[in-house]
């Protein structure tokens, strides 16, 4: 891109480019040159908006974690409708077919990125932490509606669901699990606390 040409919403353009690379090629392919090439801009553009590449990646990860707010709201609103297993299956499938699975190895892959994230994200892995909170809030709503046992430990069930389903999707190069595989995994985790017809 020639110098002097204005780029609209450059941060979002760079974040979107990083997401495409991460989903297509994995964390090892994510470099500043790859991001700016994918975004169609000069390499200097990234460094004019971010201190360095790890600073860019930290803001990218946090941005993608915050994008889960709408998904969390939709899942909470689903409480009391459909079935608990179907709602969780849909939400977790959507989560793990998004950038979430790719963010986890990116955070693990880069020591400096983890160190920077710790400054603003003190516990857990961004995206997975948000996902566990989203699922726990949904399960709590279903418990309040009587569709889960009154003593269901939603703060323990949520990370179990996230971990179980994450393992199904973790192989980025393999075939994605189908809805029935996700449904079986979800059912296995929550079956002991369900109080609705299966």
UniProtKB/TrEMBL annotation:
DNA-binding region: 31-50
Residue ranges occupied by any HTH tetR-type domain in the UniProt entry: 8-68
GO MF annotation terms: DNA-binding transcription factor activity; transcription cis-regulatory region binding
Coiled coil region boundaries: none
Recorded superkingdom: Bacteria
PROSITE patterns reported in the protein's UniProt record: HTH_TETR_2
Keywords: DNA-binding, Membrane, Transcription, Transcription regulation, Transmembrane, Transmembrane helix
Keyword check for Protease: no
Name of this protein: TetR family transcriptional regulator
Species the sequence originates in: Actinophytocola xanthii
